[in-house]
Write a structure and sequence with these properties.
The protein is α/β, with parallel strands linked by helices. The protein contains 27 helices and ten strands. Helix 13 crosses helix 14.
């Protein structure tokens, strides 16, 4: 078992494990080695136990010399306090990984077909990107994507990394149900979006992450300078299938706005990752990243098909903030254990505005100031100490904090990283917007919503019906075609179970017809000339040798060799 580590602060690495297959609570997750080798679905107690990190500050530490306590205080940086949003992210991540494997079951014939098609495409990689979508379109994908958007310092990266580490990163398979099954499974992969925002560099980061993990040389093989992004995507698709990658996490996606990438191209890239490459993706970024999802409604929807989580700062009057602050306040390393009075609470929130990392740093710095302040002999945390610490030791972030305190929209635009949903905040300031324009936009939105509600129904119904496993004579494409026809001919408010029943009925009839076609003996005489000659010999009451000789299938031995 390998210890957890971070290479160059970029590549998060987890554990290597040998496959241990477990019975599944849900039938659709059974008979799939990639899913059965995962840990059981976590409950809230599991998340609490594995997620929480509590720094240890003993009574002996508190009695230590000032210079020692200064170092002890740094332990507080390791604090990870589970909050309601962490449980929400864990649930989303858990379903993303498992549902992504439904259409990538290595025991399913479609998985082998996918590998075969990808091998053919790689033989003509210079042109393959032009028709890769068409070739793989009939092989269904159950990969979804999730976006997590939040202000800087709120704890997005820390949370997702901690949740990923609850799963082994690499699982080695050898035997499955007594049969040889030699495969390496990568459960998760996390990469940071390059600062230059280049999609090409992002692809290379993917290859490097696998190289760092497995000791391979894919970056050297597939990422050389003259590679175009579309060609590298083909190789990413191949590696994703080969290693059964469960989820790809891409952090700091707001960096894509720094480059010259076209917005449509960027969204297409993420859609391709989940649709064609077949990897469930989690996109993490600051509020700036919201600009990536504006414009093309369809592409934006597909780039975050499992929805988005808006991770805002904690509100002052919320139970979440109260709980967090009370937990944090226990980790004091001063002579006097300061009480968390209402005045202290108010001052502390005023200076950190409910941002997790700001709160933790303010708490540490305020204690450091109390340690070395000769005028504060009792070493107490008071509102005065907290204010002075924020004003002097955290001076660099004061313009941003002031923008939040005053709800100054103009200043917030300047510091976009601290903004959440700028559009909603601006609603009350668009007094001069023409009503006609707003009505047209609302109608467009409604049309799009109806269109994609129908598409969602098709996708969900297709997966559910195909997973029944009784339509063995039909291809995935044929099943999808029937489902699409049924949903297309029904009204938008038709009950889902009615559609499902109708789809199963039609598919059963179609499946039976397909079986009957296969059972009919196909005429083979034209395809097998030797059998044809034998049949003719029987009818003419001759020996087959005579006709074979006459047709030139048998040579005269003397003439042939002498």
């Amino acid at each position: 078992m390998r210890n957890l580590e971070k290479i160059n602060n970029l590549v998060l690495k987890g554990d290597f494990e040998k496959a241990d297959y477990k019975e599944q609570a849900l039938s659709e997750y059974s008979n799939n080695p990639f899913i059965e080798s995962l840990p059981p679905i976590f409950n809230e107690d599991d998340v609490l136990e594995r997620f929480m990190v509590t720094p240890r500050i003993t009574e002996q530490d508190k009695q230590s010399e000032t210079n020692i306590r200064y170092h002890v205080l740094k332990r507080i940086k390791n604090l990870i306090q589970p909050l309601p949003i962490h449980f929400e992210v864990e649930r989303r991540l858990s379903t993303l990984i498992r549902r992504g494997y439904l259409a990538r079951n290595p025991l399913d014939k479609s998985f082998l077909e996918r590998i075969r098609v990808l091998h053919q495409l790689r033989e003509d990689e210079e042109e393959a990107y032009k028709y890769i979508d068409d070739r793989l379109n009939y092989i269904r994908s159950t990969a979804d994507s999730l976006s997590i958007i939040g202000i800087s310092g709120i704890g997005k990266t820390t949370a997702i990394e901690r949740l990923l580490l609850m799963y082994p990163q690499v699982i080695k398979h050898e035997l499955y149900e007594g049969q040889p099954f030699n495969r390496t499974q990568i459960v998760w992969l996390k990469i940071d979006c390059p600062y230059d925002g280049s999609l090409s560099t992002l692809c290379k980061s993917f290859f490097k992450a696998i190289d760092d993990l497995l000791g391979t040389r894919y970056l050297e093989k597939f990422g050389y300078l003259n590679r175009v992004t579309s060609t590298m995507l083909l190789h990413m698709t191949s590696l994703a299938s080969m290693y059964g990658i469960g989820v790809l996490v891409i952090d700091e996606i707001q960096h894509l706005l720094h480059s010259k990438n076209d917005q449509e191209e960027m969204l297409n890239f993420f859609v391709t990752l989940s649709n064609t490459v077949g990897i469930p993706t989690v996109l993490i970024g600051t509020s700036k990243a919201q600009q990536l999802f504006k414009g093309n409604f369809r592409q934006a929807r597909r780039a975050a098909s499992d929805g988005s989580i808006i991770w805002d700062r904690m509100a002052e009057d919320s139970e979440e903030w109260e709980f967090f602050l009370e937990t944090l306040w226990e980790f004091q390393c001063l002579k006097t254990q300061s009480e968390l009075t209402e005045d202290v609470k108010k001052t502390f929130y005023e200076e950190c505005q409910g941002i997790t990392s700001v709160a933790v740093n303010l708490f540490i710095l305020a204690q450091e100031r109390a340690l070395f302040d000769e005028a504060n002999e009792e070493e107490k945390l008071t509102p005065k100490v907290i204010k002075k610490t924020a004003r002097e030791d955290m001076k660099i972030i004061q313009p941003m904090m002031n923008a939040l305190r005053k709800n100054d929209l103009k200043a917030m635009y300047k510091y976009e990283d601290i903004m959440i949903n700028l559009d909603e905040l601006m609603i009350n300031h668009k007094r001069n917007t023409e009503y006609e324009g707003r009505i047209k936009e609302a109608m467009k939105e409604r049309q799009n919503t109806m269109q994609y509600k129908r598409q969602d129904t098709i996708e969900n119904l297709n997966v559910e019906v195909a997973s029944i496993g009784i339509f063995d004579a039909l291809t995935s494409k044929e099943i999808h075609k029937v489902v699409e026809k049924i949903v297309g001919e029904s009204t938008i408010d038709t009950d889902y179970n009615v559609l499902k029943g109708q789809a199963i009925k039609e598919l059963m009839e179609l499946n039976q017809k397909a079986k009957e076609r296969k059972e009919k003996p196909a005429p083979s005489m034209k395809l097998l000339p030797l059998l044809d000659i034998r049949e003719r010999a029987l009818k003419q009451k001759k020996h087959s040798y005579e006709l074979l000789l006459a047709q030139g299938y048998i040579k005269n031995t003397l003439n042939e060799f002498y």
